[in-house]
Amino acid sequence: MFVFANTQYLYLLIIIPLLTVLYIIMYIKQKRRLHEFGNVETLRGLMPNVSKYRPHVKFGILMLATALLIIALARPQMLKKQDKVQKQGIEAMLVLDISNSMLAQDIEPNRLENAKMLLSQLIDRLTEDKIGLIVFAGDAFIQMPITSDNVSAKMFLKTIQPDLIQRQGTAIGSAVDLAVKSFDKNKQSGGRAIFLITDAENHEDNAVEAAKMAAHKNISVNVIGIGNPNGSPIPMSGTMSYLKDKDGNVVVSKLNEELGKEIATAGNGIYIRATNSGAAIRTLEKEVDKMQKGEFYAMSDDYDDKFYIPVWLALFLILIEYFMLRRKNKRLSKINIFEKTDKKG
Question: Are residues 131 and 165 in the same domain?
Fold first, then answer.
């Protein structure tokens, strides 16, 4: 199995096509200037050391070497072995509201990004536990089933945006229902918890009743309220304006703390307002510590770093590109690879 430890560096590969386009543009401009200067064939006779193909080959080699160095930064790894490891922890479903109201900026940088940062910190704390991820707006769906793979959970979290769900709204009850159904059907000795992060606005179903049903199955529902009770307008993506109602008035989205507290109470959980992520995480951590830990087995993967392979390949290509500069290597100046020579005799 082949993976990258630092996948974020792979985005740097975008510079390869950008530099290629720039190179093509510069090459076309250079050709135009030569045509304007005089007859191209005549000019070639005046520049016997200029190769027609060598610059393209050199550029291609440099781009390939650059791509290999970027891949090395991303730390390619090969799976060495897999072991079954016994752990003790809880099962937790992280349920995130991604409705448009979560774009409100009454908490920096906005509700959704702040919520994602908070959940990322929570995932870091749940290293010995099994976690899953659900997103919801007007509908709810499982972004990641319950697993002990925290790295994948954080990767999925980064990709979450409101456009993942077309139907807008805040169907908290459906999300809690889906979270309850997502837990392992086999009986577990450990505690189970739902961590719901939402502004709790414009709910479309009976969220309190759904939380009661979860508590009846010994699943606690903890609510993290995100936003400000005073409210904030909702920015329209790609524009400088705000969401308006049918009468043309700017919609102001407010954190519904009352509903959030009702859901937490019904679900035998706690309610926290996420004004400070550090304080919120510490409170949630204490809540997790109170829960009974169950035993389960998780797969532990041992990977070997292979970053040195693309590094050595890149260095080899750079050396090839360097020795193609005959003017800087006088000893190789008599070796003609790219040009034909006429032999008389």
Answer: yes
225 and 277 in a single domain? The answer is yes
> What is the number of structural domains in the chain?
2
SS3 percent helix, strand, coil of the chain, rounded to 5, is 45, 25, 30
**Same-domain status, 57 and 193:** no
Same domain flag for 209 and 116: yes
pTM of the predicted model over 0.90? no
What lies within 8 Å, CB to CB, of 207 at 6+ separation is 172, 173, 176, 200, 259, 263
Q: Which two tokens stand for residue 294?
A: 């169950």
Query: Does residue 345 lie within any of the structural domains?
Result: no
Beta bridge partners, 86, equal 297
Q: pLDDT tens track of the chain, all 345 residues?
A: 678 888 889 999 999 999 999 999 998 887 777 666 655 555 555 555 556 677 888 899 999 999 999 999 998 888 776 666 666 788 999 999 999 899 999 998 899 999 999 999 999 988 888 899 999 998 899 999 988 888 888 888 888 888 888 777 788 999 999 999 998 776 566 789 999 999 988 666 789 999 999 999 999 999 999 999 998 998 987 778 898 888 889 989 999 999 999 999 999 999 999 886 678 888 988 888 888 777 666 555 667 888 899 999 999 999 988 887 544 444 444 555 545 555 544
Same domain, 172 and 292: yes
Domain that holds residue 45: 2-75+307-332
